[in-house]
Amino acid sequence: GISVGSETNGGVTNVQVYDNSFWDSEEGLRIKSDYARGGEVSNIRYSNICIRDAKNALLFTPYYSTKAVPAGGPLYPNFHDISIANVVIMGTAGVKLQGFEANTGGYGEPAFPLVMSLTDVVADTPDGISTIASDANLTLHNVNLPVFASTANRVVVNGEATRNARPGNVLDCSKAFVDFPGIDQSNPFGSTWAPSL
């Protein structure tokens, strides 16, 4: 997949990720940091992406690891102005959408919620998507992932998830996954490639 971080202490901004396909990856789209690495991650745009059989199709977390806090004190991850558009998730997968909770680790910092918009982000089997969300302000349009507002987890949702969203209306992923030679060991050209003459 595509990862931003874990080292974000210098900040990451103005990144565009588009026209990708991921098959059997651990993570599809990922931004990761923690309060030992900190930093602002903003203005990140993802579009036209097919994700198939990923452990985590979407993974945005400021709780990446337990690296020691620097001598100067914690560095606070702040992920905002992130947009995901025209993404199809095929098969079962996890989705984690987390911002940074206030007073994490006992430090007196304010909250830095994940601010993200999801437009035309659909799964072919929405019931196969396992979602964890906390400390997030999410805007949804034509999304069928199980993403819901939660007072307990400090999740605000503008719009709503709908089962009516269909992958075929978002992005054609039927030819997104190339059968590379060597996958099928009995045929060095793969099962859909033919030797050129």
Question: Could you walk me through the main structural features you see in this protein, from its secondary elements to its overall organization?
Answer:
The strands form 2 sheets. A 6-stranded parallel β-sheet has the order 2-4-6-8-10-11, with no helix packed on it. It has a 5-stranded parallel β-sheet with strand order 1-3-5-7-9, with no helix packed on it. The chain is mainly β and 197 residues long. It is globular and about 50 Å long. The protein starts with a strand and ends in a 39-residue tail after the last strand. The chain has strands spanning 2-4, 12-23, 27-32, 39-52, 56-61, 77-90, 93-98, 114-123, 129-134, 136-143, 155-158. Helix content is 0%, strand content 45%. The model has no long low-confidence stretch (mean pLDDT 91).
Query: What is the overall silhouette?
Result: globular
Distance separating the two termini: 34 Å
The largest pleated sheet is described as: 6 strands, parallel
Strand content: over 45%
The tally of beta strands, per DSSP, is 11
Poorly predicted parts: none
**Radius of gyration using CA atoms only:** 18 Å
Strand and helix order: EEEEEEEEEEE
Global structural class = mainly beta
How much is the average pLDDT?
A: 91
User: What is the overall number of helices?
Assistant: 0
Helix content: under 10%
Lateral strand order in the biggest sheet: 2-4-6-8-10-11
